[in-house]
Amino acid sequence: MASFFPRHTIELRLEEPKAFRRLSFNLVEMALVAGIVLRLFRSMALTHGSSSWLYIGGTFVLGLAFLCSMTTAHLANYPLKKWFWRAPAFGLGVVAGEMATSLLLIGVGREPTGTARAGFHDWIGMAISTFWTRELVVCVWAALLALIVSLVRRTIVAAELHTKHEREREHEAGR
Asked: Which stretches of 49-122 are DSSP H helices?
């Protein structure tokens, strides 16, 4: 089986991973990077973009795909039983990164809220909204991903057992 989605932490390889792979092991750094990039992307898309529904929908889908990709890249390094706490913690880290970036953007007058610029008084409401949406997305995605991983594993294990039994039957028939 590939090195992604290990069943136990001892299955992790001791070879030196590439830079992004090293980053993906660290929950805090990975989540903060995801949050900062998401908030900057959102800010640029809403500030400099079109007001057409196609553009807004497209940017929403891109942001969602990025968040799910970063979540997957982090969770893939750990066994399923550790996802139970890692997924919500990752979502919390994303929110922390986004809201720190939001404070900076508000400070320089570049954070949009609807058709206007956000002020510091808008920040708490934005933080609460961001918290619930990001946590929901990350936790639902992690649950869906865990279901897919466990089904694939079960299928692979069943196929391996079937192959093993076939070999044993062929071996016994050959005697």
From this structure: 53-75, 80-107
Tell me if 95 sits within 8 A of 135, measured CB to CB: yes
Residues facing 117 on adjacent strands: 112
Cα 157 to Cα 17, 65, 144, distances in angstroms: 27, 30, 20
pTM beyond 0.85: no
Cβ atoms of 105 and 53 within 8 Å: the answer is no
Tens digits of residue pLDDT in 140-159 = 999 999 999 999 888 887 77
- Residue pair 97/35 in contact by the 8 Å Cβ criterion: yes
Half-sphere exposure in the Cβ direction for 164 (13 Å, CA) = 6
Spell out the domain ranges in the chain.
9-174
Smallest Cα–Cα separation from 8: which of 69, 91, 77, 108? 77
Do the Cβ atoms of 78 and 9 come closer than 8 Å?
A: yes
Nearest partner of 72 among 151, 131, 146, 163, judged by Cα: 146
Least confident of 62-71, 76-85, 113-122: 113-122
Name the residue among 78, 104, 94 with its Cα closest to residue 33. 94
CA atoms within 13 A of residue 3's CA, in its CB half-sphere: 8
